[in-house]
Amino acid sequence: MGRTIVRLVPHSDARADVTDFAAAPSERLAGAVSPSRRSMQRAIRTFEDRAIQPEATPLKRLTVELDDSELREMFGDVAMTTHQSATDDGRSLTMTETYRVPGQQLQVPDALSDSVAFAYVPRPVEFFSPNTIPPIEHIYHMRLSDVTTALNALRCHRNDWTGRGIKVAMADTGFMLHPYFIRAGARLIPTEAPGSGPADVDTSGHGTGEAANIFAIAPDCTVFGVKHGSSSAATLETCIAQKPDVMTNSWGYSIDSQSRDELRDNDPNMFFELLDLEVVIASAVTSGITVLFSAGNGHLAFPASHPDVIAVGGVTVNEDGSLEASNYASAFQSKLYPGQNIPDFCGIVGRSEPRPQSAHIMLPVPPNSNLDGANFPSGANGTGWGIFSGTSAACPQAAGVVALLKQIAKNLSPAQVRQVMAARSVDITKGQTATGVPASAGPDLATGAGLVDALRACGFVAGVA
Amino acid sequence: MDDRDTSQDLNVRLVMERPDRPTMEAWRARLESFDLVIDAQNDRSIDAHGRQQRIEQALGVGIEENLDDVSIVSGPSVQIGPPSARVHAYIPRKPKHF
């Protein structure tokens, strides 16, 4: 017996006529298709009366999975037609998928007509020929497997420390289910935040690419990819609502060049956004979620400087394998939070100059997104890959290590996570940061405790190191 | 909505120092009465969007642009609920992705 996923869009308060939609400008659509909580809850009750549990999205749409008899009971005799999608341009692997959709419009049943505007069976996404395997580009760079090795996570995986059972939430530009993730069996769940639009649409490529850094370290964790919405605070609230163990954030605001009093005087609007974000971050950390932020690429970044979050900076792997502080990554003393040094420790980040090390990691991106083909000497694009690596890459790498630690010891507090990872990092003694801070022996401002070492941190927590 | 209103679309977020559901519900009703669309709401915050002019009318304050051409607001000047139920409004800024 087949099962069919049906997506339902509850009525808006305005009760717009859906037959007008085709001709409506997008700004009107956005206002009209704004399901009300009351309609959503009424629709949920209708399903629950039939012992069916729908899933509600943050934007109050509903998804239900129905077997054939439930589909018939709810929507009458629906004639389903079978289709097959395939892509093969001779360059990428052929992907074929069979799917069934109704041959005609899905009629909303009487029982739901008061609460649901329209319903449909979502069609599987067709991938437009992104390659599962990255292309060869003649520039020095690392592949994701090199990141796994550089952070010493390979032997963690052999010890079965893979992040299994751990949930990571990542707020970014969107998260496409790239064939690389599917081939790797990665559990990436694109998740909408208020005002974000579809979470699996990523026109930038940043979120999709940087998420791959998590799986390089913690291949079995579950990642909720939360697309950035109308405000950063509401986006973080959506992350917290997923009840994650870890939150990783490769974004921020370059505002930590002034004290709080100066910020309040100079930019009161930003000051209140800072206060709001502080409250949201505090609610995450006090509930036991470990929160990480990128230190910035020469930026003086908040929330990285917030004392409750772990700030992740950058270390470059040179062509001869030596390590040095990345001259693309930030390191600074906070003025918003006096006494606070950024970063706590580092992941892998490229260099700003000299080339060819500037772009460092080959990452999967949606084809024709902004970062598709980024830094390819060949100029090729449309491959679904790009080379880029600011501290946006370092932060999810460190979050992957946190996922490994939490698998071993679920109750580690955010403070304990920070302490263990810092104590077991590899000291970096060469190079200087984008902000001109030189690395030296021992913990320093340039790289904090140094480069994160997954095996040493996990071994310590597991009591075997 | 006034068809002559050609002001830009903006997001706005209202936050309270302490969660207070009745005050947030009252603010929701006020924002909706000015044709603003509510994107999210909880006991301490509301995310909404709509025309700048309507946001200004709902909050009782003007929205300006700073030197970086970023929209900013201070207020609201409208008081809803008891004086202790203080609400702040800001125009969320787009973050930099690193």
What does this entry look like structurally?
By secondary structure, chain A is an alpha/beta fold. Helices cover 29% and strands 20% of the residues of chain A. In chain A, helix 5 packs across helix 8 (206-217), helix 10 (260-266) packs across helix 11 (268-286) and helix 12 runs parallel beside helix 14. Chain A is globular, with a radius of gyration of 24 Å. Mean pLDDT of chain A is 89; it is low at 86-96. By secondary structure, chain B is an alpha+beta fold. Chain B has two helices and seven strands. In chain B, the strands form two sheets. Chain B has a four-stranded antiparallel β-sheet with strand order 2-3-1-6. Chain B has a two-stranded antiparallel sheet with strand order 4-5. In chain B, a hairpin with a 3-residue loop joins strand 2 and strand 3 (45-51). The longest helix of chain B is centred in the first third of the chain and has 13 residues, at 21-33. The chains are: A alpha/beta (465), B alpha+beta (98). Strand 11 of chain A pairs antiparallel with strand 7 (96-97) of chain B, so a sheet runs across the interface.
